[in-house]
Amino acid sequence: MKNKYLTGDDNCFLVKFITLNTLIMTIKIISTLMLFLCLSNSSCAKDKDNETMDTDTEKPINTTEKASVVSVSVSGDVNNYSFSVGVSSPDTGCNQYANWWEVITEDGELVYRRILGHSHVNEQPFVRSGGAVQISADQTVYVRAHMNTSGYGTTVYKGTVSSGFMADTLAADFANDLESLSPQPSGCAF
Asked: Has this prediction a pTM greater than 0.90?
């Protein structure tokens, strides 16, 4: 028996409308489930390097472990050098990470500081570049790294742009007053 209220075109529209509504409801249900699963699993937050960070598994803070400089390369021109510095650090997350490396004079004056905005738990050692470092080609400088929990490391690199840089050691308390100078990290992203 033919429906006296719906024509063939109306029946086709009704089927399309029901199919579309079913599809929309299915998408809403899947989206809700995904959101629930992500919120219940803290490892959904990913960093820039596609690593996951689960703050529940961060190691306890160790105030004796230090960051070490493991390499230095330089490019550029006088008073406008770019330093690429390799750092090895016992990062466990934002609670313990290398938060900067810096270039200082032999007299302990700050020349340049490169702020590190996040931990490098799964990237060790890591290399980060910075500049412009305003020194002459023959000025001797130290390059050292700093931990947010344990301060300056004693394994540094010393040298000049013209003759290169070599591993060296600085006293743990050498120019510690620089720790309070600007720039300072504004936080840790992950």
From this structure: no
Closest by Cα among 183, 157, 156, 159 to 172 = 156
pLDDT of 63 reads: 78
Distance between CA atoms of residues 107 and 146, nearest Å: 18
Query: Which residues constitute the domain of residue 161?
Result: 68-172
Domain with residue 159: its CATH number is 2.60.40
Q: CA 34, CA 146: separation in Å to the nearest integer?
A: 40
Domain total for the chain? 2
pLDDT of residue 62: 76
Please indicate, yes or no, whether residues 72 and 161 belong to a single structural domain of this protein.
Answer: yes
Residues 89 and 155 in one domain: yes
Q: Which stretches of the chain drop beneath a pLDDT of 70?
A: 1-59
Which residue, among 70, 65, 85, has the nearest Cα to 131 in the 3D structure?
A: 85
Q: pLDDT value at position 118?
A: 95
All residues at 6 or more sequence positions from 21 whose CB lies less than 8 Å from its CB, including other chains: none
The pair of three-digit structure tokens given for residue 29, joined into one six-digit string: 């249900």
